[in-house]
Structures are given as C-alpha cells and as structure tokens.
Amino acid sequence: MLKSSSNSLILRIELDQKVTTFGEVANAVSLVGGDIVAIDVIRSDKQSTTRDITVNLGEQAEELIADRIRMLPGVVLHHISDPTFLVHLGGKIEIQPKIPVKNRDDLSKVYTPGVAKVCMAIHENPDKAFTLTIKRNTVAVISDGTAVLGLGDIGPEAAMPVMEGKAMLFKQLAGVDAVPICLNTKDTEDIIRTIKNIAPAFGGINLEDISSPRCFEIESRLKEELDIPVFHDDQHGTAVVVLAGLINSLRLTKKRIEDIRIVVVGIGAAGVSIIKMLLGAGAKTILAVDRQGILTRDNTYENPLWDWVAQNTNQEDRKGSLSDAMNGADVFIGVSGPNVLKLEEVHRMASDPIIFAMANPTPEIDPESAAPYVRVIATGRSDFPNQINNVLCFPGIFRGALDCRASQINEEMKLAASKAIAFTVTDDELNEQYIIPSIFNEKVVQEIRDQVVQAAIQTGVARRIPPEFKGSKLLERKLTPIS
Ligand SMILES: NC(=O)C1=CN([C@@H]2O[C@H](COP(=O)(O)OP(=O)(O)OC[C@H]3O[C@@H](n4cnc5c(N)ncnc54)[C@H](O)[C@@H]3O)[C@@H](O)[C@H]2O)C=CC1
Ligand SMILES: CC(=O)C(=O)O
Ligand SMILES: [Mg+2]
Known about the structure:
Blueprint: E1 3-16, H1 22-31, E2 35-44, E3 48-58, H2 62-70, E4 75-81, H3 83-86, H4 104-110, H5 115-124, H6 129-132, E5 138-143, H7 156-174, E6 177-182, H8 188-198, E7 204-207, H9 214-225, E8 230-232, H10 233-253, E9 261-265, H11 269-280, E10 285-290, E11 293-294, H12 304-312, H13 322-325, E12 331-334, H14 343-346, E13 354-357, H15 367-370, E14 376-379, H16 394-403, H17 411-422, H18 443-458
Parallel strand pairs: 5-6, 5-7, 7-8, 9-10, 9-12, 12-13, 13-14
Antiparallel strand pairs: 1-3, 1-4, 2-3, 10-11
Helix pairs in contact: 7-16, 8-9, 10-11, 10-17, 11-12, 16-18, 17-18
The site of pyruvic acid (PYR) has 8 residues, from helix 10.
Keywords: Metal-binding, Oxidoreductase
Domain Malic enzyme NAD-binding: 235-457
Active site: 111, 166
C-alpha cells in the first residue's frame, strides 16, 4: 500500500494528562497503519497538552484514524488538516515587480510617459521584445484540462494546481518565469487560435496534459505557425527522461538497446513520443500495447499515429494482450493508468527486468511489491527512488532554448537533453536505486542547458549565441554513445 508524505494528515489533539498519555494516541495511530513523522506542541499546562501530530497514512486509512482517536478517553480531536491542501491555499505562485516604484520619477519610467518610447522601439523592431519585455525569460504552461496526470478530463479549473506546480518548478529549478494558463475549450482549432494569439508575450510554449490524439495536431500546427519553441511536455519531456533512465538501466544490466525487448503500455501522448525516441536511439524490438492489446500492422486505426506506431513496431507480428506481450520482455514502460501490470506478468519477463511504471498519481504496479522481483523499478512519483518524471527535463530544456533564443526544440536538442540527464549520474554513483538523478541535483539543469544550447547552435536553430559558446568555446565534452 502506498504510504507517503503526499498522503499525510495533521491531527490537532488535546490530551487530558490525568486521564491518558501520548503513548495511547501513538498506539491508535499505529493500529491503523499510520507513521507519526512530526509532533509539534501547541500549548501545554499541568492539566492538558495540545499537539499537532503529522501522520503518514496508507490510502484507505484516513477515515479510520479519526474514529480511533475519538474513541480514546481523555483525548479531544480538534481538527484534521491535510498539509497538501495547506500548501495550495491561494495558489502556489505570484508575480513580483523586479524593481520598486518609489516615486513619480520611477513611475514615469516604468509606466507612462517613459514606457511609450520603449513600446515604439519594439514596434519598429519586434525582435526587441526579447530584450525589453518578459518574453526573453517567460514560458506559457498551457492545458485544456483533458488529460491531467492520469486523472483524465477534469476540466480547466481542476488542472490549475498541476500547471501552477509546473510553473513553480520552472522558476525554482531553472529561473524560467512560467505562466499557468488553462483554456476553457477542447476544440483543436480554438486552442491553436488562442495560443497563437497570446504567443507574442512568450519566449516558449509548454503544452501540458492535453489528451491524445488532439495534442499531436495542436503541437504540430503550432510548431509550424509560431517562431518560438512549442513543446508538449507529456510527449517529449517524458520521452527524454525515459530514454535517460533506459540508458542508465542498460549501463547497469550491460544490455544493448538494439537487443532488448521493450513493452510500452498506453499509446497516448507520452507513449507515442517514447516509442519514437526509443526507435531513434536504436531500439529494434518494441511492442506497443493499449486497451485493445498489442498494436499490429494488419490492423488499421482511427488515430493515424497508432497506424504509424503499428507500422514501426512489433516486427514479429505478435498478437494478444499486455499479459502476452510481457513474455520475455526486458523492459516495461507504463504511461497508461493505475495497476495495469500484474506481478505474475513480471515473473515472465527476461533476466534483470526493468520496470518504469510511470502513470501518475498511481503507477501501473505498486513499486514496493514489484521491487523484490526486478533489477530496476522506477515510477513517476517523487516519494520513491528513481523518479522518471518530465520535471527532470522541462526546466533545463527550456533554459537552454531561451538562452540561445531557439526557434524550436528539435530532435537533436531532445537527445542531447537525454544524454545530459543520464550522464549526470557517474559510474560510481550508478546503482539500482539511482538510475536517474534527483531533480534537486544541482548539476542537472546546467548540464541539460549546456548540451541543449550546443545542439541548437549545431543544428542552426539558435538565434543568439550565449557568450560562453562564442568562438572556439563550444563544449568539448563528448558524450558516451547509448550502447
Ligand atoms: N512520469 C511522467 O513524467 C509522466 C507520466 N505520465 C502519465 O502517463 C499516463 C498517460 O499520460 P498521457 O500519455 O498524457 O495520457 P493520454 O490520455 O494521452 O494517453 C493514455 C493512454 O493510455 C491508455 N490506457 C489507459 N488505461 C489503460 C490500460 N488499462 N491498459 C492499456 N492502455 C491504457 C489510453 O487508452 C491512452 O491511449 C498518465 O497516468 C500520466 O500521469 C504522463 C506524462 C509524464
Ligand atoms: C508528470 C506529468 O506531466 C503527468 O503525469 O502528466
Ligand atoms: Mg503532464
């Protein structure tokens, strides 16, 4: 059962010290499977003590704990709060001025009349928007709320906490200002039109949690029609990090990407892009599985990308379900939904099985149950080791793209980002519990940024050469090949 800090409660209890002891409370918590991780004394006198106790709980135990504590003599449960909700109160980000406006003189510079000459300078040369506005360092994080994590079509308002979270991480990890925007339309043309209309303010567009297949057309049309990077994070960010995790898992198992059998489950935004990236990196044997089973060449599909996937995978024409696909697989990559993979299917994998169960918030298999039977287990969650999550990619790749004012994020830049992430983990550090660096590893964003800028310059999409890349100063470091 998943028990983590994202599933914790703060219980404010008052204890009559003449009647009971804190040990009784601790015992009640433990009886429902909770772990006390913090105790704060709020008030204390001779008669009673009031404490906030923070408890990590299994998913089903939340209801039980209040009942248990209320049953204890001498204990009053004042209230229960959820720390995850507390950090969301009023939203998670804000906009701050970079300079104070203290007097009329300041006002006349930052606003009218002074601002007018800056406006006219941009009017005469629109490129100046990059130097004289927030465009240089600002990305829009845009969703229509249709494929939010694995929660599905929950609407634009409900999608905002995820988009705010992404914006927060853009800033904290890479210094990129990001504006969360959730659109109240699911219409492809409407979405494209809206994004094109707001694009002048931004240096990049990060599309997020837009369901497939609409996400593919929205992204490709915007890429054609805009001259700033448009990057569907669930597709490419995820694929970049999966490839990084696979490179490192193969460093451990000493297998070559050309030789392994890979099963990808969930052929949506993330799944299609992962398959494309793995094929580009040399993978030869991939089975693509969705709800109807393994995609095969002799079928035609409504979604043209499924036709593409079917034509480019499953060369052995295997048919059947996920369970059939798992026979002899070296690698399972799940970007589908909760609990789709059974332990019995894991037992039928090849030696040194590698599992990336990446559905959020609930993975395809409980990582703790699978761990004893596999060589590597990774999830998309931050509360387990080996977090394979696009958060490792999007801050650094946009940092690089913005710094060199790239017109797009191309395949070479994505591959450079994958390798940068993978080789942040040194040979000495690499082990089954550490195939992918933590997002808090300070080297990650810088490494990605440097390699991405270099790839952008080399492929001719950089419109600005950062000073450290001028002349002969291009990065010399050669990356180890994937296999
Ligand atoms: N760890 C990470 O960085 C990321 C994780 N994800 C997770 O991957 C999942 C899919 O995300 P998207 O590709 O954006 O969604 P999507 O909606 O574009 O695609 C999901 C696909 O999975 C299939 N699917 C769902 N349940 C299935 C099942 N039981 N068996 C087989 N196929 C099934 C659907 O039919 C669909 O084709 C979500 O849970 C999401 O949270 C997505 C992006 C990044
Ligand atoms: C991580 C992410 O972007 C997702 O689960 O949709
Ligand atoms: Mg997402």
